[in-house]
Amino acid sequence: MKIKTAGTVKKNKSIFNFAPYIFIAFACLFFLSPNLFMPKTAYSYNNSQGKYLFHYYNCDDCHSVNGVGGSLGPSLSNYGNMVPDFNWTVQQIKHPNSHFKRGDKISIQGKTYYVIMPSYNYIPQYEVNELASYLESLKK
């Protein structure tokens, strides 16, 4: 359909004129970003970034990995073999009181600890995911 206005002829633009471009955009999104459509696991993230965040947020003040770090909390050297799943780890980082009541005593690997881990709900979600991925990759 053509519309005549002030001496010029303009084509009426339809959404169908953009269909090839929309298709290409979705194809690129799907094929170039497969991680958007896959479940998140320890191997979906960059574990070196998670290791950096482990030190950046001072997790090593209380927890040790391979004998390096604090002893106030449990060692995380074998965490990847002990954790129920990725989402449990994310929840434990953001809201540790959802799994253990603050101040309670818990026994992990034959040692008793007081539950005093603070909430890290201020950390951006993508960083929590990186940190959880790193922790899940720790296996002896």
Tertiary shape: elongated
Structural class: alpha+beta
Global Rg? 25 Å
Query: Mean pLDDT, nearest integer?
Result: 79
Overall number of structural domains: 2
Number of strands: 6
Annotated CATH topology of the largest domain: Cytochrome Bc1 Complex, Chain D, domain 2
Name of the CATH first level of the largest domain = Mainly Alpha
Note poorly predicted spans. 34-44
For the biggest sheet, the summary is: 2 strands, antiparallel
Explain what this protein looks like in three dimensions:
The chain has 140 residues and is of the alpha+beta class. The chain folds into 2 domains: 2-36, no CATH class; 47-137, Cytochrome c-like domain (Cytochrome Bc1 Complex, Chain D, domain 2). It is built from 5 helices and 6 strands; from the N terminus they run E-E-H-H-E-E-H-H-E-E-H. A two-stranded antiparallel sheet has the order 1-2. A hairpin with a 2-residue loop joins strand 3 (64-65) and strand 4 (68-69). Helix 2 (47-56) crosses helix 5 (125-137) and helix 4 packs across helix 5 (125-137). The radius of gyration is 25 Å and the shape is elongated. The N and C termini lie far apart (70 Å). Residues 34-44 have low confidence and may be disordered.
